[in-house]
Structure formats: structure tokens, C-alpha cells
Predict the structure.
Amino acid sequence: MIIKLDPENISSRDQIILIALDLFGQRGYSNVSIRQVCTQAKVNVAAVNYHFGSKDKLYIAVADYVSSQLMQHLNADIEAANAVLEDTNNQGAQALEVLLHIVENTVDLLVPDSEESERWARFITRFQLGEAVPDHALLKNPMLHIIAQLIGVIKNNNTDTLENAILAQTIMGQVLIFRVSRVSAMINLNIDGFGQAETEKIKHVIRQNIITILTLG
């Protein structure tokens, strides 16, 4: 579930973060000034300096906000994954189910039509395209490392191989394509949007793909 900040009951710091999230996503890091953020957030420049200190630190705060929302949504899955990885028996079937649950929950978060996830997608896509931005947690995406480790358990090999890392990227790419290439996806699928029925079908297909890749590949 996405935790939204209530615009009617919001601190000036959170208001700045939400406005900056939109502006950085729409225009890119280099084309957004502190003054533009302040104008839309209806605060003075001193407020940004007080809460963040600089444009770089404001950008990192926005990335941290998006990252915290993603991690909160997947918190139970992360705990389940860590339990599997710490188990000396390392059951492959259990690891597979945890991995599938992580992916399906990610689909539920990112694929259905949602104004909030669309804002995140714009922000994330900007720096994924190679825009020069400050270093932050979203660039490293800790979930990919967890998934790669689970793949190692499933395939009964070294959890830190390059192949497992590539497989993790490939698996999550199946989800992200429906968010970052949304218009093309709707045209090619001949649909008007991504509701519950479309989301469930996507989860079913991705689930079967993962099982095939990791158990038959």
C-alpha cells in the first residue's frame, strides 16, 4: 500500500519534498532550481536551506522518500527473504516462493494506474537514463541484491555471481517495463489502462516466466 502525504496536513519539509519530486521528475535535476521549488511549495529559500542545506541534499531527501515508500511496502518480503538466506538448510523451493512474492508485490505497487507511482516512475526514469545526479540509495536498489541472493539459493550456486545479478535485473525488468514504457504497453496490449484484471494477468505471466527461467533454464 502506498503511504501518501496528506496535502491538507503536511509539514513544510514534506511539502518541499513532494514539489521537488514532481519537478525533478518532469524537468530533470539540472533544470530545476531551488527557487522554482520554493515558488511552487510556497516557502522561502531559507526553508530549503534550513531543512536540507543544498539542492543536492534536497534531491537525496526526495530519493530517500521514494526508497522508504518502496521498502515499507516490501518490508514483510524483505524479512522473509532474510530468513531464507540465513537458514543453513537453504531450501530452494522456499526461496522461489519468497522471490515470486516480492515480484508480485512489486507489480501491485508499480503497475496499476496510480498518480503516486507515476510520479515515482518519472523521478526514477530520469536518473536511470544517465542524468548526473547526487549519489543516493535508489541508485543501488538493495532489492536487486536480495533477489540475486535468492536466485543463488534456488539454483544452488554462489549467491554473488554475475549471472545471478543479471537474472535479478532481468526478472525485475519484466515489472518495470509496464511502468516506464506505459504508453507503448497499452497500445500493444490494446488496453486503456492497468486495472485489477490487467495487473493480475501480468502477475500470472511474470510468475510463469520466473519459474521457467529459474527451474528449467
